[in-house]
């Protein structure tokens, strides 16, 4: 299961962060409008999407993590920022993630500055994990404010409210090829993540789109269903596929004949296969996918639109020069 999934109980602590509406843009005539909720400037560092914020006047950086159910601070950062902690709601005192779990408390940030807007009294979960040079992460309580556009080539992530768009295509940006689109699963308070289906070696697989993952990876069970077994490839150690844990996870490099999502297909590519329980997920598409694509997550339509910026399915560790998008 994705990192950052809460235990049982109410999700009141993880309420959506209230931000100011800033602009409105019409698409394809006056009927379909995108109203900008917030535009996040993003820095790319070592396959991470980082958002500069202010926490009670201190300049900090948070990982933009669509694979986390809520925003979190590390216990070390909360202590450094002198944020008093308190017990979270009953049943929300731990988080489960791929490879393990961690205990949770909570803290209130009196002044959160994000994208030039200061929001008072924002509650964060505080997790007993070390994020290294980062104070924590921004999760789905920010992203679920609306539809989300990931334009990491321009170092921007934008959240929109849509009005009157119906089934209109929302990939409004210019592209050499028509945008690909896939259906995504319904969002619920307990499952706020972006998930859909794709094909691995012709086998239907369930994928999750996770900006918190530096690299895309495949579950062992999905690789087996696709006809790829670990004895066919040398064993290695996966480096930080699950960022909340500082421990490494056993993994191996799987060679796949094809991976198809929407109208895009890459052939003869290598992807890490991890030996940890991923629940009902088969593939996590991480930053190597997001850096290669312009992506619009239209929750209002249960659609995800994307175009390749590079002609590749992946940019970074999972990229293989011989596997362009077809």
Describe the structure.
With 326 residues, the protein is mainly beta. It is 6% helix and 46% strand. The chain has helices spanning 75-80, 140-143, 220-225, 287-290; strands at residues 5-6, 23-27, 32-41, 43-45, 48-55, 58-64, 72-74, 85-86, 94-97, 100-114, 117-127, 136-138, 147-151, 156-163, 180-183, 195-200, 203-209, 217-219, 235-238, 249-261, 264-274, 283-285, 293-298, 303-308. Strands 2-3-14-13-23-24-15 form a seven-stranded antiparallel sheet, with no helix packed on it. The radius of gyration is 19 Å and the shape is globular. The model is unreliable at 5-11 and 237-247 (pLDDT under 50).
Topology as a string of helices (H) and strands (E)? EEEEEEEHEEEEEHEEEEEEHEEEEHEE
Cα-atom radius of gyration? 19 Å
How many strands?
24
Strand order of the largest sheet: 2-3-14-13-23-24-15
- Please work out how many helical segments DSSP would assign: 4
| Helicity range | under 10%
Distance between the termini: 31 Å
CATH-derived architecture of the largest domain: Beta Barrel
What fraction strand?
over 45%
Main β-sheet, in a few words?
A: 7 strands, antiparallel
Strand pairing plus helix content: what structural class? mainly beta
Give the low-pLDDT segments.
5-11, 237-247
Would you give the CATH topology of the largest domain?
Cathepsin D, subunit A, domain 1
Oligomer: single chain
The dominant shape is globular
CATH first level of the largest domain: Mainly Beta
Averaged pLDDT:
85
């Amino acid at each position: 299961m994705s990192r950052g999934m809460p235990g049982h109980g109410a999700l009141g602590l993880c309420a959506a962060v209230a931000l100011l509406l800033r602009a409105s843009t019409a698409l394809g005539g006056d009927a379909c409008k995108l109203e900008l909720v917030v535009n996040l400037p993003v820095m790319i560092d070592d396959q991470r999407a980082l958002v500069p914020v202010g926490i009670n006047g201190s300049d900090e950086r948070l990982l933009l993590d669509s694979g986390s159910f809520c925003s979190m601070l590390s216990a070390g950062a909360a202590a450094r920022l002198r944020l008093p902690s308190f017990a979270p709601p009953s049943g929300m005192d731990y988080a489960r993630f791929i490879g393990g779990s961690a205990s949770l408390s909570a803290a209130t940030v009196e002044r959160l500055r994000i994208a030039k807007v200061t929001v008072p009294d924002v509650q964060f979960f505080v997790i007993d994990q070390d994020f290294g040079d980062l104070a924590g992460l921004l999760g789905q309580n920010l992203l679920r404010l609306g539809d989300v556009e990931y334009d990491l080539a321009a170092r921007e992530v934008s959240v929109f409210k849509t009005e009157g768009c119906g089934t209109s295509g929302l990939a409004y940006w210019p592209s050499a090829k028509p945008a690909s689109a896939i259906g995504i699963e319904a969002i619920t308070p307990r499952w706020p993540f972006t998930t859909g289906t794709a094909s691995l070696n012709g086998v239907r697989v369930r994928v999750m789109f996770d900006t918190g993952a530096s690299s895309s990876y495949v579950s062992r069970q999905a690789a087996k269903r696709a006809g790829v077994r670990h004895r066919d490839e040398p064993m290695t150690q996966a480096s930080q596929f699950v960022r909340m844990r500082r421990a490494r996870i056993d993994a191996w490099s799987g060679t796949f004949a094809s991976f198809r999502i929407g109208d895009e297909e890459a052939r003869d590519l290598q992807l890490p296969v991890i030996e940890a329980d991923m629940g009902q997920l088969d593939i996590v598409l991480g930053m190597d996918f997001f850096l290669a694509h312009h992506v619009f997550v239209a929750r209002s339509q249960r659609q995800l639109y994307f175009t390749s910026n590079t002609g590749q399915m992946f940019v970074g560790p999972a990229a293989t020069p011989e596997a362009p998008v077809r």
